[in-house]
Amino acid sequence: MIETTGDDRRFPAALADVARVEFDYDDGDGVDFEMYEAFDSAEETTDWLRHWTGNHELDGDAYRVFGQDGTGGLAALWCVRQGRPLAEQPVVFFGSEGENAVVAGNLSDFLWVLAGGVGPLEVVQFEQYEGRPNATLTELADRHATTRRRPAREIVAEAQAEFPTFSDDLDELCR
């Protein structure tokens, strides 16, 4: 069965596998990321988005929040490709201080970013694109990814080029 957007809140198999991996923060030299065991509920996502933007007219239907960093920044699948499976949606990051960006064009590319030893916070807030490769996540990406392995810098640049107005569009929603 293909997971599609809409009300679907089931993790794609790749995210379920990532949820079983412990990320090593290593006192700031590792990856500051914690996967959830399931997507936040629709209600939690709507509540969070309304508070993040200050716009209480929004709903969170376009996002599937699946993890966070130690500061409270959230990683989510952005369901912008109508009718496409969750694994084909871009991965976005919402920082605790308002920073935001598209991190990967799809879940496969996000797996390669993680395997390279960087997480969404490191990419968005610190523009860090290289870390210590993680053998467990590399094996997971080898198993699940439908895209070829590429450096995180290239993956992020491609995704941001595909969705160049993401941040500006979010800014327009803020009150």
Biggest sheet character: 5 strands, antiparallel
Structural domain count: 1
List low-confidence stretches: 1-6
Strand % is 5-15%
* N-to-C CA distance: 40 Å
Radius of gyration: 15 Å
Number of strands: 5
Biggest sheet, spatial arrangement of strands: 1-2-3-4-5
Question: Would you list the SSEs in sequence order as H and E?
Answer: HEHEEEEHHHHH
Number of helices: 7
Cα shape:
globular
Commentary on this structure:
With 175 residues, the protein is an alpha+beta fold. The chain has one domain. It has helices spanning 13-18, 42-53, 107-115, 120-126, 135-144, 152-162, 166-173, and strands at residues 34-35, 63-68, 74-78, 91-94, 100-104. The protein has a five-stranded antiparallel beta sheet. Strand 2 and strand 3 (74-78) form a beta hairpin. Helix 3 (107-115) runs antiparallel to helix 5 (135-144). The radius of gyration is 15 Å and the shape is globular. The N and C termini lie far apart (40 Å).
Concise account of the structure shown:
With 175 residues, the protein is α+β, with helices and mostly antiparallel strands. It has one domain. 36% of the residues lie in helices and 13% in strands.
